[in-house]
Design goal:
Layout (H helix, E strand, L loop, with lengths): L2 H8 L8 E6 L2 E6 L8 H18 L2 E2 L4 E2 L16 H8 L3 H12 L9 E2 L5 H7 L4
Antiparallel strand pairs: 1-2, 1-5, 3-4
């Protein structure tokens, strides 16, 4: 456990959980990391699988050269918890912004713009994965 997290625990300080929101048809839908309580959980999981397949199939773009570059490697360094790498990769897939994006993709049709609001910064891996969801 990192020194900062240890000190927070010792002092009874809890981190603010990441929360992402999307408004659809006048209703606000909020998602928290790893929260699978949504009534359309199965459909959201299916969209997340599709998102993951799309990213792994296309790799990522080297935007400085505008060419297709290498296969996407999950940014597990963005996961700060004490976990093995495979668990970190799984945790990335449950970030609140990915859940909100998946719900937006489930509930809208192209070319609708999907706007997600997040209370914390978006991790680098989620930012990269988002580029493939169009």
């Amino acid at each position: 456990m990192s020194q900062v997290r240890k000190e927070m625990k010792d002092k009874g300080i809890k981190a603010v959980p990441g929360c992402s929101s999307i408004e659809l048809d006048g209703l606000l839908h909020e998602f928290m990391m790893g929260d699978w309580s949504h009534p359309e959980e199965n459909e959201i999981r299916e969209i997340l699988r599709d998102m993951s397949k799309r990213v792994h199939a296309f790799g990522h773009m080297d935007t400085s050269k505008r060419v297709h570059a290498v296969r996407h490697e999950p940014g597990i360094s963005d996961v700060l918890h004490n976990m093995v790498d495979e668990e970190k990769e799984n945790a990335l897939g449950e970030h609140s912004e990915r859940l909100a994006i998946a719900y937006g993709l489930l509930k809208t049709k192209e070319p609708t713009v999907i706007r997600i609001v997040k209370n914390l910064r978006v991790c680098g891996d989620c930012h990269e994965v988002t580029d493939y969801q169009h």
